[in-house]
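Write out this protein's structure.
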Amino acid sequence: MKTLEKICALAAILLFFAVLGLQISGNSQASAQAAAFETVSSESAVLSPPNESDKNAQEGALININTADSETLDLLPGIGPALAGRIIAYREDYGPFEETADIIDVTGIGLGIFEKIRGLITV
């Protein structure tokens, strides 16, 4: 599921619970529907595609750089298809990474990219 689809699904879930909460608190169903419509209208106007640093924020789980496929590695900020391919090639050539900082040994990944992804990866 794409990140934007996940954001929309999360907004729908939040909207459901907001409407449920309004109904439980004794507001009429018409008021709840009006509030739901306003929430959806205002949220859809504010939602925009996530930027690169937010790619993995929705996931919440760490990405194991020793087992992740190219598509999963591409979710990391600063890692596109080319770098994802290099990470996989490095694993195939040298074996699994012993610690996350070893990813710096991959050509094209420097301290800048490592600082962006260090909290998002594991071995």
